[in-house]
Design a protein that fits this description.
- This protein has 103 residues and is mainly alpha-helical.
- It contains 5 helices and 2 strands; from the N terminus they run H-H-E-H-E-H-H.
- It has a two-stranded parallel sheet with strand order 1-2.
- Helix 2 runs parallel beside helix 3.
């Protein structure tokens, strides 16, 4: 398949990333994988496995720090004493703590 062919196509693939991506790495000669990190426990486990499989296939992985949130959820939990924030007031307080550490 030629790159030009891919630019005009949308592929919807229904399979777990852990099993489908290694196949696609090889079939499409993929050199880089970019994805948005997720902070859910299941997603962390899944993403770690995908990164391991990509490394084994020689694929460079670029995971965004955070995307759909303003702050990295892991940083918020860590700054909140290991507990998730449960309200916007808690997020604002923890954000203040994070900014104070940087300054």
């Amino acid at each position: 398949m030629v790159l030009g062919d891919l630019l005009h196509s949308l592929f919807v693939i229904r399979e777990a990333p852990q099993t489908v991506l290694p196949k696609l790495f090889k079939a499409w000669n993929i050199s880089h994988l970019v994805f948005e990190r997720d902070s859910d426990p299941y997603a962390k486990e899944r993403d770690a496995k995908v990164m391991e499989l990509a490394e084994e296939a020689g694929v460079k992985v670029v995971a965004t720090r955070h995307g759909r949130t303003l702050y990295d959820p892991d940083d918020l939990v860590k700054a909140n004493g290991g507990k998730p924030t449960m309200s916007i007031t808690q997020v604002q307080h923890v954000r203040y703590l994070l900014r104070a550490r940087v300054m």
